[in-house]
Design a protein that fits this description.
The complex is a heterodimer of chains A (about 375) and B (about 100). Chain A is built from 17 helices and 8 strands. Chain A is an alpha/beta fold. Chain A has an 8-stranded mixed sheet, with helices on one face. Chain B has about 100 residues and is an alpha+beta fold. The longest helix of chain B is centred in the last third of the chain and has 17 residues.
């Protein structure tokens, strides 16, 4: 982020403005990625009218960065109608798609709508690996064709490469593909639990040794010595730091209108089908609770030597059962990075216990509302 | 020929007011800008039908205690910068809205 961007983010935090929103238009998808955290059945997506109304409310509330994602967004026949409305309301629009349904016409329209970036997930440069992960034969070729089309129109393309056991050795090849296409490359070494709390897909995460190797790859992390340096002690003022932007300057809206602090933090905070977006943002008891949590309020993390450098995700902590607790997945990353176990990791290794899946209400709330009507 | 300069906002931009500033992002290169109150006046008045000269004398000098020649010099600098980044269009004739995509 540029220094001006950071300055604007700080101002948004001071003013309580939701600067960034990810809006998932649908959970339907034309791929079935093995690691996906979504239920792809349509449980009653918002209509075109509902989405346009929501976009208007979000613009009035100060939302600037709008990430449109899914599922697969091109499964929605009204996608371009929605994007044209978002353009008219002057959002900075970012798209996430697998690109499979992008042809010349779609690429041209995306370009004409002034979309800031298009992110496409690529799991491997080898079709047999990528297509096995997406469970869609030919998907790698189609995604690459889409990226070529988008790049030919001068669009900023980002390749998102999620690391898992199946593609562990292929990030070098995907990076080379990104370079060839003139695309930006990002690596995500974390498989996250399903939104309903099911943790079975976490078995796809790479092991500690593999993670350690990734974190010592200069091409991926930059200065390895700096990246893997042991944690430093923190002063008291650091304990008042906020974990991330979720719920502070950013939030997420599901295809069913549910507002969460983040796509990875599925705590229901209100539904835009029943309340105005700005009223949820300002008055939701759940968002207020999230905003009140600092490092000082986390008993395990505030005492941990990794507190100043940990990438702790409050959403992952929530999915493990306690939004004020540690995130084991981030403890494992800190250990792989530095070789020093966190307090939480020491406790868990001393007395192993399985994490109880958290029963979430993402879909149930909509079904209950339907029954009442 | 008129010496007036008509300004029009590009439609290929993202923008959002935040307090007393306006954030603008170019769709072509994602560069982020912020405009202060006076610059916002020029931006909001850039409707393709209002010349810069009228914006300076009719809006800026009317609302702020600044000499017209000083205001015009500063306005011209701002306009040049915004034009350079593709955020603003300038023409000797009024600009139709449909032709504003950059």
């Amino acid at each position: 982020m540029s220094s001006l961007g950071a300055e604007m983010n700080a101002k948004a935090l001071r003013l309580g403005i939701p600067l960034s929103v990810q809006l998932d238009l649908t959970y339907r998808c034309n791929e079935r990625c093995v690691h996906c955290y979504l239920d792809h059945t349509d449980h009653g997506e918002m209509t075109t009218g509902e989405i346009k109304e929501l976009l208007g409310q979000m613009a009035d509330a100060g939302v600037f960065y709008l990430t449109i994602s899914g599922g697969e967004i091109l499964m929605r026949r009204d996608l371009f109608e929605i994007l044209e409305y978002a353009r008219a309301r002057t959002f900075c629009i970012k798209l996430k798609t697998n690109g499979i349904l992008i042809r010349a016409k779609e690429a041209q329209r995306i370009r004409s709508l002034g979309v800031e970036s298009v992110q496409i997930s690529i799991y491997s440069h080898r079709p047999e690996i990528h297509d096995a992960i997406t469970k869609m034969p030919g998907s790698l070729r189609q995604s690459i064709d889409a990226m070529r089309l988008l790049r030919s129109h001068g669009l900023h393309v980002i390749i998102a490469n999620v690391l898992m056991v199946q593609n562990l050795r292929d990030h070098t090849g995907v990076r080379a593909l990104a370079t060839e296409l003139g695309a930006q490359y990002t690596l995500d070494p974390t498989i996250t639990p399903m939104m309903d709390g099911n943790r079975s897909i976490l078995s796809l995460n790479v092991d500690e040794a593999a993670l350690r190797e990734v974190f010592r790859n200069e091409a991926l992390v930059g200065n390895v010595e700096e990246f893997c340096a042991p944690p430093q002690s923190v002063d008291d003022s650091a304990l008042d730091s906020l974990p991330c932007s979720a719920g502070h300057t950013a939030c997420y809206v599901s295809p069913y209108g549910e507002v969460y602090p983040c796509v990875q933090f599925p705590l229901p905070c209100g539904n835009v089908r029943r309340m105005k977006f700005v009223d949820i943002w300002r008055d939701s008891p759940q968002l207020k609770e999230v905003r009140g949590i600092t490092l000082r309020d986390m008993p395990a993390c505030s005492a941990c030597m990794h507190s100043s450098t940990c990438t702790r995700c409050p959403g992952l902590a929530y999915l493990e059962g306690n939004m004020r607790g540690p995130s084991l997945q981030d403890c494992e990353k800190s250990y792989a990075r530095t070789g020093i176990p966190s307090e939480n990791l020491k406790v868990r290794r001393a007395s192993p216990q399985s994490l109880r899946p958290l029963k979430l209400v993402q879909i149930q709330s909509l079904q209950l509302a339907t029954e009442i009507l | 020929m008129s010496e007036k300069r008509y300004l029009a906002r590009s439609t290929a931009i993202a923008s959002r007011a935040m307090g007393d500033e306006l954030m603008i992002m170019s769709a072509t290169n994602s560069t982020l800008f912020t405009l202060n109150e006076i610059a916002m006046l020029i931006w909001e008045a850039a409707d393709g039908a209002t010349p810069l000269e009228d914006i300076v004398t009719g809006r800026i000098c009317a609302e702020y205690d600044v000499k017209p020649e000083v205001a015009m010099t500063e306005a011209e600098k701002l306009v040049a910068e915004l034009v350079g980044h593709g955020l603003l269009l300038v023409s000797r004739e009024p600009i139709e809205s449909l032709t504003r995509n950059s």
